Amino acid sequence: MVDPNPERNLVIDFRYHLISLVAVFLALGIGILLGSATLGGENVTGRLETSIESIRTTNDELRADNAELIDRQSLSEEALQVLAPTVLDGALAGEQVVLFEFEGSDAGLMESVRGAVEVADGSIASTVTLTAKLALEDPEARTELARILGSASVEPDELRAEVGATLGRRAATSADTPGFNVPDGNPSNRLQLFVDELEAANFVTVERDENLDLAPAGALFVLAGGNLDDPLFDIGPLTTSLAVGLAGREAGVLAAEPRNSLWGPAAAVRADGEAGGIIATVDQADIVLGQYAVAMGLQLAESGAPAHYGSEADTVPLPEPSPSS
Fold first, then answer.
1. Is there a contact between 81 and 292 (Cβ–Cβ < 8 Å)?
2. 104 is in which domain, residue-wise?
3. At 11, is the secondary structure helix, strand, or coil?
4. Does 293 fall in a domain?
5. pTM for this prediction
6. H-helix or E-strand containing 256?
7. How far apart are CA 299 and CA 2, in angstroms?
8. Sign of CA dihedral 201, 204, 207, 209
9. Do 96 and 240 have their domain in common?
10. Rounded to an integer, what distance in angstroms lies between the CA atom of residue 129 and that of residue 310?
């Protein structure tokens, strides 16, 4: 007989719940049993422990190998450092070098580049630092730079390429003209006036020997920059236009960057059809081997034989010493 109350007919007996729970646990138990049998039963934990211990041992061995490699590299660096004064002796004797660097570059890179010049008996006549303001992130900065350049462009890459080309041409022309503190209109003064405007607007900062022109007669040029962080802006157009402008009077020009740099001034020069054929590059200038390449590569670039040095494709580790070295 059916209960006249329909709600009572919807109630499930507790026995059904109990049977369902027993079935679930039974299935779990069978699964665990089968899995244990397949994997080796009680040996599963032992196997896992053995695997973990093997991984630990391998990791320790790799750490030891890595430490040994670091020690060997340090010894090699120390040996090269000791030999540098002998190998580079006189490579840049009497040469004045104008250094262009990008703000925020690796301090070790800049120290290495300056050290290369000095160990090779050259000297840094001036340092022009291209500042972060050249990111040209706001319209006011773009308008200000366009005014200094007398340019109609408002595109950041175009403005950076223009400032690089103008700065490069004027520096090269100044280095091609002897004399210091000569009448207005001389290339050295035209360079100084342009740099003064850029410095007043915080696009560059300048350090220089007050007894020399900003770009002394016969000066060589180095462009250096980079670190492991992302650059504030694409330095490629600025680097290549500046480098090509500097090389316009057949001066020795070299672009340098550290290992693993994300900025790529050397890479930008190599990738440019015009710049790559007339400008030397070094892509590991932050180590002693790179110091050798900077000094010797700049010497060869001055003689009209620029090449590309480092560890990247289509490079050689070091220049071949010139007969006079």
1. no
2. 90-309
3. coil
4. yes
5. 0.73
6. strand 253-256
7. 109
8. negative
9. yes
10. 24
